[in-house]
Design brief:
With 237 residues, the chain is mainly alpha-helical. The chain has two domains: 84 residues, no CATH class; 108 residues, no CATH class. It contains seven helices and two strands. Strands 1-2 form a two-stranded antiparallel ribbon. The longest helix has 37 residues. It is elongated, with a radius of gyration of 27 Å. The termini are far apart. The N terminus is likely disordered.
Length: 237
């Protein structure tokens, strides 16, 4: 039997033209969408809460520079800069909510700036012998773990609320780090009672070590909430 050779029908010129026009329209829509995203991102970057967040990031090298000089005066100024960064942390979130300027960029940058300044300062303080490396490693590991949990939960459409222990950890940690940055003995007289000379490095260590307790317990709480949320989601599906 002779093999039959099938001839391929010629492509429809009108169909080819429509296909090409569709591709051009899709590329145009993609370019427009990217242009709008860039415009929105730039507008978000210029709002006041996000500018405060950017300022907090820029404070990191200044704090480290002053600490590297190591004199009591420089350490005192470093503590003021770090304190100002902590104030902007509370201020930018409050402004964003009050003015309706909560943005994706801000939600990304705000926690990132917090973790960067805390981690960078603590690591620098380790090199100065003011805090143990084990404590800093534990604190940073906790932050990475909780951030990863929240990221996974967010991708699954779940919301994990902040633990009370996490807020206590943040407060103790902030005050403790300020004491460690100042880092020299000072005479403290409250008027009513004279506390004498207090070594702020010891005070800072105690506060940071106390924050470790809340760090671990709040991390366990986050893991428990995450497990419960996943279990509830599995039951619903």
């Amino acid at each position: 039997m002779a093999a039959e050779v099938e001839k391929k029908a010629p492509a429809d010129p009108e169909r080819k033209r429509r296909r090409a026009e569709k591709k051009r329209a899709d590329r145009k829509l993609l370019r427009e969408r990217k242009r709008r995203e860039r415009k929105t991102l730039w507008a978000d970057a210029k709002n006041l809460p996000n500018l405060l967040t950017f300022a907090r990031v820029l404070m990191i090298p200044l704090v480290l520079y002053l600490l590297s000089r190591g004199t009591p005066k420089d350490c005192y100024w470093a503590s003021l800069v770090y304190g100002a960064a902590a104030i902007t942390d509370a201020l930018d979130g409050w402004l964003a909510r009050r003015q309706g300027l909560v943005s994706v960029l801000g939600q990304f940058l705000d926690p990132l700036a917090d973790k960067l300044i805390v981690a960078a300062t603590l690591v620098w303080l380790v090199s100065m012998g003011r805090i143990g490396a084990w404590a800093v490693a534990l604190l940073i590991s906790r932050e990475i773990t909780v951030t990863a949990l929240r990221g996974i939960a967010s991708s699954e459409g779940l919301v994990i609320s902040a633990e009370k222990g996490g807020k206590a950890k943040t407060a103790l940690q902030m005050i403790g780090i300020v004491c460690l940055i100042i880092g020299f003995p000072y005479h403290l007289d409250a008027g009513i009672y004279d506390f004498g000379t207090i070594d702020l490095v010891h005070v800072g260590r105690i506060l940071v070590y106390a924050s470790l307790v809340f760090s671990v317990t709040s991390a366990v709480g986050y893991m428990s909430l995450f497990a419960d949320a996943i279990e509830q989601k599995d039951k619903q599906t």
